[in-house]
Amino acid sequence: MTTSTRGAGKAPAVLVLEDGRIFRGRAYGAVGATFGEAVFSTGMTGYQETLTDPSYHRQVVVMTAPHVGNTGVNDEDMESKKIWVSGYVVRDPARVPSSWRSRRTLDDELDAQGVVGISGIDTRALTRHLRERGAMRVGIFSGEAIQDDAALLARVQEAPEMKGADLSAEVATTEAYVVPAIGEKKFTVAAVDLGIKGMTPHRMAERGIEVHVLPATATVEDVYAVNPDGVFFSNGPGDPSTADHPVSVMQGVLERGTPLFGICFGNQILGRALGFGTFKLKYGHRGINQPVQDRTTGKVEVTAHNHGFAVDAPLDKVSDTPYGRAEVSHVCLNDNVVEGLQLLDKPAFSVQYHPEAAAGPHDAAYLFDRFVSLMEGQRA
Questions:
Q1: pTM score, two decimals?
Q2: Which of 37, 129, 212, 264 is the catalytic position?
Q3: Per-residue pLDDT for the chain (380 aa), expressed as one digit of tens each?
Q4: d(CA 110, CA 31)
């Protein structure tokens, strides 16, 4: 929900949280008004991948790193065709980008795509506030959009909440497309797009997988029309409690016993398909430095995250589900949030984080190899 104008220079800007906290700074990117859920990302690099991740749809991202825009914007690191964040908050934007790959400044790119942002505020104070009070609705107003504080607060409190939001179809492809295997084709995977990032089918293509990316509205029949060796459910935005259609499609896949892999939103879909609940985290996990333990190996990985919801599954026991036994395979070492699930009697698993993370870290890239192993085992 954004209204903007371009080229208005360093106009005054105001950030208003739904609990009444206000920060004042200068416009960054487009000038106007925007609304969304205020969340913070702890990554020091990879801002271009963050901005173009469809999972950030309807969220205003606060960067905890103080300096942003240092490497400008290039044409190669986009995770999708556009910037998806509703707004952008930085402390100290780079005046001049420094990278041989840079084609334009981040400020100009935000402006060109109509993304309203704010700079020059105390992002440490804002992040601490969100950690204590939780993610909440926010508005950024600049230029002529600025009114008196009470009027701005009223507009923020009228904005829709993230809880109960069904957003996957708003960011997913509307037409199926194919990402060919790199080198020899070994497998075919049907990937249900709930907000997929460009790097995800690329990681599979690197392993000889031809990926058929299907819309979020795809049916079980659509999935099996491509004769898949495996099925993938992607990341995406919104509240998993609203995702009844993807859950029913996944249950159809589980009934057939086809190898299955889910990432992020796909992990929450698997949790629901198995009969577990989901819940909203206080402020979520976002950034590229989250510690996760793979409980199947004991290995600790540094991982990339972007999620505000989690699966409510028991950490201390194997659970019986309609599709056999299931267990929590990965856990966040910061707060014991479920970061992965696996079935013990069928070839299906998922993780809550992003093993495909283009900006890194790449500790969890082996999970794509695990998916390949499941398909090899099924074929054998």
A1: 0.94
A2: 264
A3: 555 554 445 799 999 999 999 999 999 999 999 999 999 999 888 899 999 999 999 999 999 999 999 999 999 988 999 999 999 999 999 989 999 999 999 999 999 999 999 999 999 999 999 999 999 999 999 999 999 999 999 999 999 999 999 999 999 999 999 999 999 999 999 999 999 999 999 999 999 999 999 999 999 999 999 999 999 999 999 999 999 999 999 999 999 999 999 999 999 999 999 999 999 999 999 988 899 999 999 999 999 999 999 999 999 999 999 999 999 999 999 999 999 999 999 999 999 999 987 777 788 889 999 999 999 999 88
A4: 10
Separation of alpha carbons 28 and 117, rounded Å: 5
The first and second tokens of residue 144, run together, are: 């002529």
CA atoms within 13 A on the CB side of 67: 8
Question: What six digits make up the tokens of 19?
Answer: 């609990």
Cis preceding-peptide flag for 361 (omega within 30 of 0): yes
Tell me if residue 356 is catalytic. Answer: yes
